[in-house]
What we know:
Elements: H1 11-23, H2 27-38, H3 43-56, H4 61-73, H5 77-87, H6 91-108, H7 113-130, H8 135-149, E1 151-153, H9 154-163, H10 169-183, E2 188-190, E3 205-207
Antiparallel strand pairs: 1-3, 2-3
Amino acid sequence: MLPIRHEPFPLESRLSLLQVVRFREGGWWVNVNIARMLVDLEPSMARRYAALAVADEPEKAAGHYYLAVSSLYTKRFDEADKHYQLAMQDSDYLHSSLDEVVRMWMFEAGLSPKEGGLRARPYIERLVREFPDDGRGYMYRILSEGAITGKVPEQWIADFEQRADLNDHRQAGFLRWLQEMRKSASLRIVLPSASHEAGRQKQSMRDVDGVPGGKRSK
């Protein structure tokens, strides 16, 4: 399996691999490695080589993964989504693909918070299901549901607090934000309506109007 994502490559390594391509057909291995090395610095060129790799070996996830990343970086969001889904068929690329496609729809595709949350929602639920110890899935779920409905189950917040990775600056920052919202009483308990059918278990909900990307509390 190829290493996932963006290790720094010396310029000499890039030039050597490109030199190979000048004199003969590169084949899948050369094309996918060129895509991997160029995806951060030259995503348009990386996309070209990733597409060649996919055409040569469409069953291999690595080509789809780097085609997805380079498509994301060149703002071809639907194409990126398609190839992230194909990369997810390989368990080695599942975690990275889920995390990146969620962030793409929520934060990078230029959608409204609600639209981005809706596009990301099925991937978020799969991230939580497949990787239940990863706090990122729970963080994304709170953000997306807050943007879509303005309310988040209290248990979801507790789930994130239990799993937050403080070494991840995004999770650590979000946890601090939640704590500040509690101090300022911006997170309010909202009980289900009394009109709910009899026998249905009441579930506490937290109003997350203050969630970034959601409606702000008045």
